[in-house]
């Protein structure tokens, strides 16, 4: 009989009917289940089900089968099936941490059969050990009970099979006998696995780094031993004493997808010692001290007490803008607009119907001038007017030479799409001056308002970094915006980009395409640029390369095509923080004007940052196609670390001062390989802010 502990557990848990108890039954169940979840049980025809109750009943039926299939896959040590189930079902749907009728969890079976790959897959999915095993004795007793009861059941069935004459009942008993013999062998294997297991060795390595002025990051690796049982959790301990007495704190980590932990709430300037130990079903193993043996929470700003560069800047700009608005509130230019009703903020689905209104003022052809086009896209589809045209409005039909200053001003306006009406009212005051620049910019604001009104959308998106020009004197400013809503819009036409490109009848020759034709030909490249420019870097410390080139009317910066909103870069490490100690070393290097570290030196071989910089510089030089020996003349920017939020920071690598910015006509012997482009500096700065 089951032990009293087992009976109590079964009463406390919602007892599950036992699943199939033989390998053949398990395979049949899994094949049946696999065929069903490949078509996704949530995608059944809703009309074929009678009422919500029946649908819920069907759903629970499939979830129960998935749970039973998981147990059987673990018992059969079928890693592929376990991974498939974990992929298609959530831990809640699998009842991953609810014991079965034997009081076992899938993770218990995996670790007691010492199947490390399956155990790791379950642990990464959030699996736990059974709470029933509160001690080594309780686990041993429970396994002995399972083995004894399985053996007893095998003996009973064997006696029945031997003593009964061959018939249908006897055939069924033989099947049960085979199933129980298989289960008896499984329980014996689990019991032997538990008895031969030992506590785990210490983690193979523990790395300690400074995460901030009040936190440390601990990264550790699994024990090297392959003979002990699977590790199911780790314990991180910290203290101000190398003897760990007294202990200041500890944390148990049972989510093993990433083996690292950040110790928060520490005191800046205080040294902390850290150690990590591993746990398996036999208990806690010995602790491994960190390397280095201690660390001091700090940040590079503590070196000279420097405040963050951007602290309070956003608030100050908002306050300044508010003051400007207040000054202009009673301006005479606002009088004609006081009686105008506020423009409605249309929803996207409602406002896009304006595209098909017969009174739309979108243009179909260009006539030598300056124009604005807005590209809205979703997946591989693009939004067009009722005449299958990309929305285009006129800015100025007498303007055939767009000055870079006007274009850069337009890109800055794109940060204030909601303030266009107010900007128009303010610029109107200066109309009397007849300034060509002000008139052009006022017309830009009018065109933006017209586009917003026709589309019913305030936010026109991001401005592409350069206008499209043709030989007919047309200039096209392009804005790009991705529509991420899944709502279906009535009367709105989304056209596949490839269809739009193939169906458009060009009115120009291939040798001299119009700006609109050029836009259609290159629209995928522009959409790719827009998507890549919104990508963010993963947390970490990066080494960036600053290279500029100047022209008559602008300065351009070298950036990678795959991430055009960031300088050319390589990742130094995952920890973005530069500690005070590391910054002092960098300052010392800069003060003696040492070259950037490309070769190891005896006195710095133990400096982790030095070694990380060596690797990063070599990788960066290869990326931008500069010989490594040239890097000896390069220097690290030592005035500050560039912080982009709390998770990303940059150290800058600069060429010699004469080569930071290449002048027009100046020869650049080292041209970067493909995969790079140059952006106007102001465009790059705006993209960085976004």
UniProtKB/TrEMBL annotation:
This is ANKF1 protein. Signal peptide: none annotated. GO terms for biological process: establishment of mitotic spindle orientation; regulation of establishment of bipolar cell polarity. GO terms for cellular component: spindle. Residues 1-25 are annotated as: Disordered. PROSITE patterns: FN3 (PS50853). Residues 202-299 form the Fibronectin type-III domain. It holds the Pfam family fn3. The gene is Ankfn1_1.
């Amino acid at each position: 009989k089951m032990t009293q502990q087992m009976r109590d557990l079964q009463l406390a848990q919602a007892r599950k009917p036992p699943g199939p108890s033989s390998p053949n039954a398990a395979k049949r169940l899994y094949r049946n289940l696999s065929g069903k979840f490949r078509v996704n049980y949530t995608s059944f025809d809703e009309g074929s089900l009678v009422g919500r109750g029946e649908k819920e009943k069907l759903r629970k039926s499939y979830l129960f089968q998935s749970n039973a299939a998981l147990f059987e896959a673990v018992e059969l040590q079928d890693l592929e099936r376990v991974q498939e189930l974990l992929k298609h079902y959530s831990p809640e749907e699998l009842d991953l941490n609810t014991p079965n009728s034997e009081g076992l969890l899938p993770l218990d079976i995996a670790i007691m059969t010492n199947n490390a790959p399956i155990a790791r897959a379950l642990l990464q999915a959030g699996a736990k050990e059974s709470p029933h095993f509160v001690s080594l004795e309780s686990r041993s007793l429970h396994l002995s009970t399972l083995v004894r009861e399985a053996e007893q059941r095998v003996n009973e069935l064997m006696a029945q099979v031997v003593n009964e004459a061959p018939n249908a009942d006897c055939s069924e008993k033989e099947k049960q006998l085979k199933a129980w013999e298989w289960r008896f062998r499984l329980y014996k294997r689990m019991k032997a696995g538990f008895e031969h297991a030992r506590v785990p060795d210490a983690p193979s390595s523990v790395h300690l780094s400074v995460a901030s002025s009040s936190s440390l990051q601990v990264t550790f690796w699994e024990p090297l031993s392959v003979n002990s049982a699977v590790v199911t959790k780790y314990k991180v301990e910290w203290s101000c004493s190398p003897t760990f007495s007294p202990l200041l704190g500890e944390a148990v980590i049972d989510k093993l997808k990433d083996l690292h932990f950040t110790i928060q709430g520490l005191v800046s300037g205080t040294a902390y010692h850290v150690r990590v130990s591993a746990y398996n079903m036999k208990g806690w193993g010995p602790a491994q001290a960190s390397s280095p043996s201690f660390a001091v929470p700090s940040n590079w700003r503590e070196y000279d007490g420097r405040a963050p560069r951007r602290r309070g800047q956003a608030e100050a700009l908002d306050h300044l803008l508010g003051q400007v608005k207040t000054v202009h509130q009673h301006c005479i230019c606002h009088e004609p607009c006081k009686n105008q009703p506020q423009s409605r903020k249309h929803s996207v689905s409602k406002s896009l119907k304006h595209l098909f209104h017969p009174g739309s003022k979108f243009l179909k052809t260009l006539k030598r001038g300056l124009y604005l086009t807005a590209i809205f896209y979703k997946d591989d589809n693009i939004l067009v007017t009722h005449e299958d045209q990309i929305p285009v409005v006129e800015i100025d039909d007498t303007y055939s030479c767009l000055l870079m200053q006007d274009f850069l001003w337009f890109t800055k306006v794109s940060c204030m799409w909601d303030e266009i009406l107010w900007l128009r009212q303010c610029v109107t005051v200066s109309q009397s001056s007849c300034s060509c620049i002000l008139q052009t910019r006022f017309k830009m604001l009018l065109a933006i308002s017209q586009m917003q009104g026709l589309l019913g959308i305030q936010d026109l998106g991001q401005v592409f970094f350069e206008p499209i020009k043709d030989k007919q004197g047309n200039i096209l400013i392009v804005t790009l915006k991705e529509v991420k809503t899944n709502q279906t819009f009535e009367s709105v036409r989304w056209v596949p980009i490839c269809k739009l490109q193939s169906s458009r009848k060009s009115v120009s020759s291939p040798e001299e395409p119009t700006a609109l034709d050029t836009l259609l030909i290159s629209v995928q490249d522009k959409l790719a640029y827009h998507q890549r420019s919104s990508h963010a870097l993963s947390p970490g410390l990066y080494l960036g390369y600053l290279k500029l080139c100047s022209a008559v009317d602008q300065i351009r910066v070298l950036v990678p095509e795959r991430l055009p909103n960031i300088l050319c870069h390589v990742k130094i490490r995952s920890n973005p923080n530069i500690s005070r100690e590391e910054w002092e070393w960098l300052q010392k290097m800069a003060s003696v004007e040492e070259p950037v570290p490309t070769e190891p030196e005896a006195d710095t071989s133990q400096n982790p940052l030095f070694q990380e910089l060596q690797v990063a510089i070599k990788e960066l030089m290869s990326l931008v196609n500069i010989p490594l020996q040239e890097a000896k003349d390069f220097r690290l920017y030592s005035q500050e670390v560039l912080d982009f939020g709390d998770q990303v920071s940059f150290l800058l690598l600069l060429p010699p001062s004469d080569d930071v910015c290449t002048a027009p006509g100046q020869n650049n012997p080292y041209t970067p390989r493909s995969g790079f482009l140059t952006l106007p500096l102001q465009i790059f700065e705006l993209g960085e802010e976004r």
